[in-house]
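Exercise: predict the fold of this chain.
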Amino acid sequence: MPSPLMECVPNISEGRRREVVDEIVSAASGERCRLIDLALDPDHNRTVITFVGEPEALAAGVLELVARAVERIDLRTHQGAHPRMGAVDVIPFVPVRGVSMADCVALSREVGEAIAARFGVPVYLYEESASAEERRSLAAIREGEFERFPDKIKDPHWRPDFGEPIVHPTAGVTAVGAREFLIAFNVNLATSDLRIAKKIAAAVRFSSGGLRYVKALGFGLEGRGIVQVSMNLTSFRKTPILRVFDLVKHEAERHGVLVQNSEIVGLVPREALYFAAASTLQLEDFSPRSVLEERIEEAFGEGR
């Protein structure tokens, strides 16, 4: 029987010093906790790391990653476009094979408690692991960021789920949770006008009347002289990636701006790209089983 597998996607607040990122990643990597993707972003000054492994090994690897990140990242000197509140900003666990969402929730709570106890970093549980409905949203937890968290954490309403209500002086606070697969999707605009990116983000994200299952913010990418609509797509089957792209493009054209390109941060399920291709080509009765490799894997018992 195949081993149970989970995915874990820690986001760390370092995307410029490659040697530091490599050191942090290597601390977690092992035979049963394998690095499958690494996405550094110097403008955001953030790195998205994707591990897949057996739950017990994954938990042990993540704790080693946190240990090294706490040693090597100092948020007092950190600057970047992306909001952040911790050296290890967020740690989501995602079911892959032979595990349930409940298993991911249980592991996230175990890891969160260990982080607070071992490193003195307060931990908030979010998404499926949240201890209260208002804590499901990572954006709500992160609001105020590292600089304002010393005041926020004193509010009884924002007492951490694990650890004392005292922000770690250099590593801040961390969110740990369980969720379904998420696509981090960015659209870069051929303008330096940040107001346009923020207006488009507001038109696209669900919280301000846009598409359901879409979270969006507008950022300036100073190193490239452009702006970006940065999004998290939390259900690509219900709100396909092409629909999101088309809306961003439409809103950009309304403001007299062209889309320069788009990018996926980290990994994307192939099914999401199938949906995009089928929609663009207007394919009738298309399904993943129309793809050669899918049928080969099905026939020989490989893949998913």
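Check your answer against the key: The radius of gyration is 20 Å.
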